[in-house]
Amino acid sequence: MAQAAALSPLAPKSYPDLPPIDGVRFATAAAGIKYKGRTDVMLALLDKGTQAAGVFTRSKCPSAPVDWCRQKIKGGKARALVVNSGNANAFTGRKGLDQAKFTASLASKATGAPIGEIFLASTGVIGEPLDASKFDGVFETLIANARPDGLLEAARAIMTTDTYPKVATATAEISGVEVTINGMAKGAGMIEPDLGTMLSYVFTDAPIAAAALQAMLSRSAQGSFNAITVDSDTSTSDTLMLFATGAAAKRGAPKIATAGDRRLASFKRALDLVLLNLAHQVVRDGEGCRKFVEIRVEGAASATAAKAIAKSIANSPLVKTAIAGEDANWGRIVAAVGKAGEKADRDRLAIWFGDIRVAHKGLRDMTYDEKKTSAYMKGEKIDIRVDCGAGGKGVATVWTCDLTKEYVAINGDYRS
Amino acid sequence: MAQAAALSPLAPKSYPDLPPIDGVRFATAAAGIKYKGRTDVMLALLDKGTQAAGVFTRSKCPSAPVDWCRQKIKGGKARALVVNSGNANAFTGRKGLDQAKFTASLASKATGAPIGEIFLASTGVIGEPLDASKFDGVFETLIANARPDGLLEAARAIMTTDTYPKVATATAEISGVEVTINGMAKGAGMIEPDLGTMLSYVFTDAPIAAAALQAMLSRSAQGSFNAITVDSDTSTSDTLMLFATGAAAKRGAPKIATAGDRRLASFKRALDLVLLNLAHQVVRDGEGCRKFVEIRVEGAASATAAKAIAKSIANSPLVKTAIAGEDANWGRIVAAVGKAGEKADRDRLAIWFGDIRVAHKGLRDMTYDEKKTSAYMKGEKIDIRVDCGAGGKGVATVWTCDLTKEYVAINGDYRS
To answer: Which CATH architecture fits B292-412?
Structure first.
C-alpha cells in the first residue's frame, strides 16, 4: 500500500451527528484482504421488509459485485450489504463472480437471509483474485457486533485512497411523521494499480416501496453523483444504493408505493440534500485537489446540452490546471464550450468567475478588473458561470476540483 | 511571454532536406504582434492557379481566421497564406473578423491577388484584440524576400509554445512524373492564457483539382491529425490546409480532377506519410511529455467504435499518469475501455504492452513477467494494443503522450 496521503485541505471540519435509523445496524472488521492494521470490511444488516434501489456504473467492463447487484436489485428487497476494501474484484473473470457468490452465500448463511437479498461491493486493487475465504467466520463476529450507530465506522472501513470518511444526514416528514435519511460514500481516486471507485449507500426508515425508491434515486443521482467529476475516469465499480427499512410505519408514516406521491415532497428534498452533500465530499477528496469548483451553464438549448457543456469545462485539463494556478483563464473555458459539440453562440457568450463578469458578448468584458479577479481565484471555492448564448432555457450545474501536480504524483509516482 | 521551455526530449534529432516546390515561396518577418526578438508572421506566396483544400476545427467557438478560411475555401483557389503567432484573434467578436478582413486586404493589395484567395491563421493569446495595422507595409517586405526554400523558417515563425519547428517531406509519382509534398505544422499546447492551436500547411506541385485535394485531405486527416491527442482540449483555431500549385504539369504530370483517379495511388500514400509524420511531431512536442504512446485497438464492432475506445484510453488522465510513472497499469486501460461506451467484452479482453501480453480472457495473463514489463515501460516509445473482445473487425490506432507534472506546471504555474 502506498503511503497515506495528507488529509485533503477541503475535508469537512467536523462530522454531523448521525441519528440511528430503525432497522439498520452496522459492523466492521479487519479481514486482512490487503491492508494491515485497519478495518477492511463492513456489514450493514437490514430488517426484513427493507426495500432497495440502486444505480450502477455504465462501464462496459463492470466489476463482479456490480454484475451481482444489478441482477439482485430486480427483486427490490435487501437484508444485508457487504463491502470490502483492498480488492475491487474487477477484471477477475468467471472466478470473480464465483468469489462474489461465495461471499454472498457466507453472509446468507450467517444472517439467515435469502442469498438474493445480499448486496455486495468491492473496492481496491483490480485484476488480483479476491480470496473470499477470508470472510469465513467473519460474518458471525460482525453480526454479533452490529450496532445502529456504526455508520461512521462503516464509512471508514470502505476507504481506499480517501483521506476522510464521508457521511451525511437529513430529516424529512411524510404526512407529519419525521423520517431520517443517512448516507455514506467513498471515492477519491487511486494510488495503487487499481480503479477509482465511487461507492455510496443511503439508508432511511421511511416506508417507501422499491419502485418508488428506484425512481427517486435515479432522478436525484442526475443532479448529484452524475454531476461530479474528478478526472473523467469512470470506474468499473461505481455503485449508489438506497435502502428503506420502513420502520417509520410503526410511528404512523404511511406506506408509499409510487415516486409521484405528493406526500414524498419533503423526502425528495432531503434525499437530494444527502446525495449532493456526499457527492460534494467525494469531489473535495479528489486526488491532489486544492480547490472546489462549481460550474453552472445557462442559456443552452436543453438541460442535456447544458450538462454536456458543463462537463466539457469540468473535464478540461487546461481549465483545471489554470484553476490550480489561480488563473482566471476564460479563453480555455471558451475552448471547452466550443469542443463540447453542443449549440453555443460565440458572439453572445458570457463568463463569470464568482460575481465578476470577465467576458461578455463574445469579447473580454471591458470593465473586467484583473486585480479583483486574481484575488477571487485565490479562494478555496471557485464558481464559474457561463451563458453559452444559445438563447435556450437549458441549465446545469456540475462540480469538480482543480488538477495539480499532486494528482500526477499520486497516480504516476507511486511505483518509482 | 513565459520562459522558453526546454527542447522536448522527443524532438527529432535533425531536419530533413526540403526540396523546394515550384510555385511556392516563403518569407517571414518580425511584426511585433507580441513577441520580441523573433519572427511572428509568415507569408506563403502561391502561383496563380494553385488549388486549395482545408480541414478546420469543429469547435463551436472558432477563431475569426477559421471563419474566414471556411468561407473562402469554397472557391478552391489560393494565392497567399498569412499566419501570425502571438495573438489567436479568437473570441474577439465582430472586430476580430474586421481585423482578419483588413489583414487579407493588405495582403491582397500587396500581392495583387483577389482577396478571396488569401488564407489566414492566427495563433497565440485569446481574447486580446489583434492589431492588424501592424501588418501595414510588412507584406511589401515579405514579398520582396520570398524564397522557395523558406519552409523551415516559416515553420519557426508560427511557433508559440512549440519547442521545435515541425516539417516533413515526401515524393510521389503521377503517371511517371515525380511530384513533391512538403508540409509544416505547429502545436504543443499553451503557456499563456491562450488556446492551444494546431496549424498545419502542406504544399505540392502536383496538378490536382481542389475537389480531389479536399477529398484526399479529409480522408488522410482521419488517420493522422484526427488520431492524435495531447490533452483532449480541442482548439478554436485548428487548421489543416493543402495547396497544389500544379507546377509539375510543366514536367508532364497529368491534371487530375477526382480523388478516385487511380493515378493518385502514389500521391495518396505520400500525403498520408507527410500528415502522419507532422501529426506525430505535434504529439512529440506535447507539453511536458516524456513518452510517445501508440494505442491500437482491435476487435471492435466498427472502425468508429475502435477509435472511440482508443481515444478514451489516450485521453484517460489515469492511463497517461501511469505511463509517466512507467507503470504498466492495465487496470486503468480496462476502465478506459469500459467508459468509452462502445461494445466490449470484459471476459474476452486482451491487453499488450509492446509484445508482452499482460491481460488475456478477462484476467491477468498468468505468464506475465513483471520485471520484463517494467523494463519495457522505461522506454521512450510505448505501444499499447487492446483486443476489446467484441469479436468485430474494427481497428484503429491513435497517438498520444504521457501526462507529467511538467504539463501541470506549464499550464498552471506560469502566473504564480
So the answer is: Roll (3.10)
